[in-house]
Amino acid sequence: QVQLVESGGGLVQPGGSLRISCAASGFTFSTYAMSWCRQDPGKGLEGVSTINNGGDMPFYTDSVKGRFTISRDNAKNTLYLQMNSLKPADTAVYYCSVAGSDYWGQGTQVTVSS
Question: Taking Cα atoms as reference points, which of 83, 99, 79, 101 lies closest to residue 91?
């Protein structure tokens, strides 16, 4: 069965960096595009970034372009999101998903605050 387990969230000061990870199992990871989304309680679900199965075609929403980098290690069945120059507006629960599917992880909390 498909499992997606996020990790690496936490509290970071504005301007800081954080890398979150998503360990995937139960499907052939290397053949699927993967996505990161986020949700803040006061806002709706927002798509953050998507990467193709080969890892060479990333897509970013405008608010994170130039600050976030999505990557994947198909040998390790793991998806990453490197987040730099973090802002309070980036505070949210971050979820990984198999792109375009109903398969989501449980989420990891990222809080940007001084």
Answer: 83
The answer to whether residues 70 and 50 touch, using CB atoms and an 8 Å cutoff, is: yes
Nearest-angstrom CA–CA distance, 87 and 8: 17
Mapped onto helix, strand or coil, the DSSP state of residue 43 is: coil
Tell me the per-residue pLDDT of 61-111, one tens digit each, with 9 for 90 and over. 999 999 999 999 999 999 999 999 999 999 999 999 999 899 999 999 999
DSSP state of 31: G
State the Cα–Cα distance between residues 23 and 8, nearest whole angstrom.
11
Residues 6+ apart with CB under 8 A from 24: 2, 3, 4, 34, 77, 78, 79, 96, 98
Q: What is the DSSP string of 55-101?
A: S--EEE-GGGTTTEEEEEETTTTEEEEEE-S--GGG-EEEEEEETTS
